[in-house]
Amino acid sequence: MNWDHIRIFLAVARSGQILGAARQLGLNHATVGRQLTALEEDLGTPLVERQTNGCVLTPAGEALMRSAEKVESELLQAGTRLSGATESLNGIVRVGAPDGLGNYFLSRTLGALAERHPDLTIQLVPLPRTFSLSRREADIVVTLDRPKQGKMIVRKLTDYTLSVYASADYLARHGAIMETGDIDGHLFVTHVEDFVYSRALDYAAELGKRMRRHYECGSVVAQMEAVRAGHGIGILHDYVALQYPELTRLLPDLRFTRTYWLMSHPDTHDTRRVAEVYAHITESVRSAKASFVLG
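The structure corresponding to this sequence follows.
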């Protein structure tokens, strides 16, 4: 079997789309389709069912994916062993992270690392979603929930706190908020429930029941900007809110603590480029730990 065909098959299987695989591989979607068909003809069996909304693996496709991933894993580990300490810091490392941490912290610290290494490309993807290491959606992932299963390397990155905030301008227009009962009738800037991807994001439920007027935003950045602009009250990450002097922390007894977990895949964890980015994230967060948890 042609390994290039297998590599293309794995991309299709992981993305669930020929077009998505083509984008990931940097190929024309027609080329990906032809290569997949060639593999199916070589094996004498269909591997995917091509549907209008994507591709679904057949039983033969599922069996091939399991075998192909084992081969891929062996190749990656062999490459790591052979390159050893002589491997230069080059190539691409993709980091998937929650949009709060990604936009307000990792964007700066990883930018500094990328600046120091001209042959290294860091792809930071700060989105309100989960990322799959097994599907190679990222090399390093920061998540809000500690995974309970799967083949991956996991460590606790840091705890972080969130509190209730409003802008000074908002409070000047609407009056001081001294206790929980004072929030009734105010506009609550919060997340869109349909887009909640982690149980760790349940901290808004308590205030959401009291505050019936909602302005719902699909990202941490949008919530932060709406509160900064004086449009309402929101639960914000303390390590971000402290950067903006126009924000006032309300209800000091009401605080929420959550955790960031750092994950990588054992097949690529020891490659120098991934190890360096992983270590840089760990050290950067450790150095700034005091800002993540409000005392």
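The first strand starts at residue 48 and ends at 51.
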